[in-house]
Write a sequence for this structure.
């Protein structure tokens, strides 16, 4: 008799086991006991504080990146669009890290994904943003760009929400299509950085943008998208996210350093 | 005991990669489906499952000894 693997048991704990695993668990006391051991540990974690997947990770990223970014202050910054510079910045930040390091891996994954995505849209103009001047300025540029993206998205959603007769499906579709590519990159970046709330909000925004970009010139379809985005409370979620981004953008660099002092764990 | 578990969980979370941590929190604490997590993190189903598997293994590695040592 083949016993259940640890992976089978993990899926069983999350109630996603295959019928074969379930059948085996009914018949095998050994595997049931092993599942119970797993359940005890996993259930115990539920009574603990929910770990933040983003905050300390973000701080550690910045602690790690800051010296490298300072070294870049004197380096010439190539003329490029924001997305290209974003990817290049991540690529350079991750390049010196030892293979296997968690963060390097996450960034490498992100760069691959973002790179593949960018290669797929060669020729598309990237939004113009201020030049990178300092290390704190580098982050600020990214936050400013994300803030601009969120503002454009909110304007689009407000127009969709208030939808007068002058709003046409064709106009909304064209603007949504322009926002969609940037939104995908920001969502991937937020996910890879463990910024859970931002990734969720951007994922919801992406669904609406996809819906809008595929609109036919048909009032019924437009009303349907409008209803869905209202049900999701998306505009409110984007307001919250935009406020967070603005706060981070405007926070003094010194205070951000102080926040990271509690997290000396290696990455 | 609770304090030890909190520290153990904190250490375990520090041991996870960003993707593993995101996948674990989304699956375990937010009860998102593997398909949803894959969509959010830009991963396929298999990669999502393996991120969750690795995360659970690491969490067990840190917490199981603490639980079994407790009276």
């Amino acid at each position: 008799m083949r016993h259940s693997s640890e992976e089978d048991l993990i899926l069983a704990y999350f109630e996603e086991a295959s019928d074969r695993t379930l059948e085996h668990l009914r018949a095998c006391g050994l595997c049931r006991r092993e599942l119970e051991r797993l359940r005890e540990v996993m259930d115990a974690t539920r009574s603990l504080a929910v770990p933040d997947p983003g905050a300390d990770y973000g701080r550690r990223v910045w602690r790690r990146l800051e010296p490298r970014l300072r070294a870049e202050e004197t380096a010439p910054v190539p003329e490029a669009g924001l997305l290209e510079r974003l990817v290049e910045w991540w690529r350079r930040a991750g390049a010196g890290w030892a293979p296997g390091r968690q963060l390097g891996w996450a960034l490498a994954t992100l760069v691959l994904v973002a790179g593949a995505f960018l290669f797929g849209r060669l020729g598309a103009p990237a939004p113009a943003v201020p030049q990178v001047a300092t290390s704190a300025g580098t982050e600020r540029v990214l936050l400013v760009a994300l803030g601009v993206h969120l503002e454009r998205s909110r304007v689009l959603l407000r127009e969709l929400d208030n939808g007068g007769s002058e709003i046409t499906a064709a106009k909304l579709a064209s603007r949504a299509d322009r926002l969609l590519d940037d939104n995908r990159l920001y969502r991937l970046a937020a996910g890879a950085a463990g910024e859970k709330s931002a990734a969720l909000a951007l994922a919801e925004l992406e669904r609406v943008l996809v819906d809008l970009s595929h609109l036919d010139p048909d009032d019924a379809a437009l009303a349907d998208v409008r209803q869905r985005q209202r049900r999701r409370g998306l505009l409110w979620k984007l307001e919250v996210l935009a406020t967070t981004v603005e706060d981070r953008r405007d926070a003094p660099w010194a205070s951000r350093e102080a926040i990271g002092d509690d997290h000396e764990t290696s990455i | 005991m609770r304090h030890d578990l909190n520290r153990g969980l904190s250490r375990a979370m520090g041991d996870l990669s960003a993707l593993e941590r995101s996948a674990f929190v989304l699956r375990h604490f937010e009860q998102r489906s593997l398909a949803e997590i894959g969509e959010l993190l830009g991963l396929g189903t298999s990669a999502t499952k393996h991120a969750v598997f690795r995360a659970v293994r690491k969490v067990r590695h840190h917490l199981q000894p603490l639980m079994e040592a407790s009276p």
